Amino acid sequence: xxxxxxxxxxxxxxxxxxxxxxxxxxxxxxxxxxxxxxxxxxxxxxxxxxxxxxxxxxxxxxxxxxxxxxxxxxxxxxxxxxxxxxxxxxxxxxxxxxxxxxxxxxxxxxxxxxxxxxxxxxxxxxxxxxxxxxxxxxxxxxxxxxxxxxxxxxxxxxxxxxxxxxxxxxxxxxxxxxxxxxxxxxxxxxxxxxxxxxxxxxxxxxxxxxxxxxxxxxxxxxxxxxxxxxxxxxxxxxxxxxxxxxxxxxxxxxxxxxxxxxxxxxxxxxxxxxxxxxxxxxxxxxxxxxxxxxxxxxxxxxxxxxxxxxxxxxxxxxxxxxxxxxxxxxxxxxxxxxxxxxxxxxxxxxxxxxxxxxxxxxxxxxxxxxxxxxxxxxxxxxxxxxxxxxxxxxxxxxxxxxxxxxxxxxxxxxxxxxxxxxxxxxxxxxxxxxxxx
Length: 437
Ligand code: XUL
Ligand code: CO
Description:
Blueprint (H helix, E strand, L loop, with lengths): L30 E2 L2 E2 H5 L1 E4 H6 L20 H19 L3 E5 H4 L6 H21 L3 E6 L18 H21 L3 E4 L5 E2 L7 H22 L4 E4 L9 E2 L4 H10 L6 E6 H6 L4 H10 L3 E5 L18 H13 L8 E3 L10 H27 L2 H9 L6 H7 L5 H9 L11 H14 L1
Helix pairs in contact: 3-5, 5-6, 6-7, 10-11, 11-12, 12-16
The protein binds D-xylulose (XUL) and cobalt (II) ion.
């Protein structure tokens, strides 16, 4: 049965089109820097925002009008799968992503919960046989139910740790069965609220134990997906352990997990950590750990995770610059971890929102490709750091210098001459590229 009646396939009509239900910049087959847009961008629909989220916020109840809401329980879960594959097809997106509890409701016991899951997994598996859309990643929701109040793998309650292990074990089996390209760990409850009642060392050690068990089990069952950690500094927990990319990468190295994971960088999580989106992407990239992206944006006037669809060209351009410099996202993709605003409650808003996000990233890709082709930032940076390619700078970076030789050099009292960083001029160049492509 059709859920988005009256809405057809969304096609590319070009920048002059006035049709709100058409792509203006995303032309899936168009080749940019040697690959099609579809191959570069690897868009993914987030099941939770698009099919499960009902529009509630801490002050208000559901606002979304959803054609599957006439059903309840497992019937609603099944209707959502049908609607999902209809939307994937109409938007022509190559991927989607879900949490276990997005796709099927919990039962009274874990057995019942898993049985509910199995029904929906079977349905999704059947759709995947004919659909072009594949599973980018799945994950476990270990934050909504009150059992996770003290944490999931970092709980003070060993029974909860065991429950989480069972949940992720099932998640890895699900990922294998549905051919997931990745498996995500986002630790919404992995953190603490006050150190006055927290064994910080035990919680971190347990988190590492949990990850090692997951790696071992994936290997045991032959799950070939890439493991991803999704950093976020806070919300819902006051201090989350995977605070930002640098913190998460240091944690992985401390516990010898660095070869088994990459980062899933979310734009709004970056800004909550006091970073730019580009900072988190760059930090992951230069460490060889940029795996995937949750593509959204926050609101600079609000202090929480607003999960808006990305419409800021400046941000998507700089994000695509990092992704292109990374040689692409490999098994990762651009997952729209984003929801239409509570007041954009009609079903077609789901289409407008995705079209806006896809067009903004498509345009960002083209601008970024031109910036790289012209080596704009590379030339600026090479010039700025040229003192490290000759003389004393070359001795420093080639490991020949030490404090003795550097002191001797400094004692020559040669005049130190700095040059302008030209930030404003560089931003004006970036604007030229943004406006000209
Ligand atoms: C929460 C968030 C999650 C993860 C998956 O802020 O981003 O939806 O992406 O658990
Ligand atoms: Co996310």
